[in-house]
Write a structure and sequence with these properties.
The chain is α/β, with parallel strands linked by helices and 274 residues long. The chain has ten helices and twelve strands. The protein binds adenosine-5'-triphosphate (ATP). Pfam families: ABC_tran.
Length: 274
Amino acid sequence: MKHIISMKNVSLIRGNRVILKDINWEVKEKEQWVILGLNGSGKTSILNIVTGYQYPTKGEVSVLGKKFGQANLPELRKQIGFVSSALDRFHQTLRSETVEDIVISGKFATIGLYENVTNEDRERAEQLMTFLRIDHLKGKTYDTLSQGERRKVLIGRALMAEPELLILDEPSIGLDLLAREDILSLMKEIILHQQCHVLYVTHYIGEIIEEMTHVLLLKEGQIVAAGRKEDVLTEERLSETFQLPVKVHWENNRPWASIHKNIGSATLAKAESK
Ligand SMILES: Nc1ncnc2c1ncn2[C@@H]1O[C@H](COP(=O)(O)OP(=O)(O)OP(=O)(O)O)[C@@H](O)[C@H]1O
């Protein structure tokens, strides 16, 4: 069986700063992973390594069965869809593009359409827009969309090239409850119908929907736990990860976190000073 992601003894050091330390992590076929951790715990650095934009100081990395160092990264990246709220950086470039052109541009990994678009491309984009419930936005430009609509257009763009791995870096950031649940219901549909492996980064454990199977907990660049979500999402491990006494309860097959009620400002100050 091919590994979707394999990291062996991976460390990332920049200057005298250890950003990731001894990461050993495997994502196998049919597993859908969530990465959780505090700000600065190393989540984005892991994604940058997976997409080949950052090279580890030490260790071995394979993605979709291709070993880094030998793999053709531009070719490999075509099989990886990436959605990040950081794409809003390109907002100026995207703003006058139409929804359908942004979705189609995912095939060429460009912002803007500079290559020949075939009828099949247009058909695929139409299907994706229907699938993502954004077909009514056809013809609209990006700058006229709500945040939730923009996020869905970017997901459509990432799916256009039929990626084997779909990475979503905090896709619900800045969205209201309704728009967030809309994105989560699309995640479910994507996992069930798009034949890709999802790697989902979030700060909120309540976003771990039933279809997400595995969780990686990161703290200060090191793995606290990685494995099946039922085994990983324990109060002890979450409390260690978030440096607070966390309580977990499961509702509608989703985990929810709360803080033990007797936590005082002294505990918070202690956690913040770490
Ligand atoms: N090139 C770099 N040089 C020095 N430090 C870096 C570099 N890249 C990241 N860091 C530091 O490494 C740590 C991990 O950063 P990273 O962005 O991976 O965390 P994160 O978990 O994604 O955080 P957030 O949830 O805030 O996005 C941070 O403290 C960051 O400042």
